[in-house]
Design goal:
By secondary structure, the chain is mainly beta. It contains one helix and five strands, in the order βαββββ. It starts with a strand and ends in a 10-residue tail after the last strand.
């Protein structure tokens, strides 16, 4: 039985908005998974994905059986016809 749970979500956070997360003024991210569940996690785990444009793309996070963060990876990064990052 696998003890790792994986959740997927997309983020569209411009760099000026993420600055508050990066400096620690805001400490957590609240978003919806692809299955519609709400998830909150520390903003600090996203720092490695920050570019001068912000943080955009689809991500997959691995959690252990106690819902403790294990890892995160970007699994997609593209824009739709309206310029929204998927």
């Amino acid at each position: 039985m696998e003890d790792t749970r994986r959740i997927q979500f997309s983020l569209n956070i411009p760099s000026d908005e993420f600055e508050a997360y990066y400096t620690g003024d805001i400490r957590s991210i609240l978003t919806r998974t692809t299955t519609g569940k709400t998830v909150r996690f520390p903003a600090s785990i996203l720092r490695k994905f920050l570019t001068h444009k912000g943080i955009y793309g689809s991500f997959e996070m691995a959690l252990d059986k106690n819902n403790k963060f294990m890892s995160i990876e970007r699994i997609g990064q593209k824009q739709n016809e309206d310029g929204i990052w998927l």
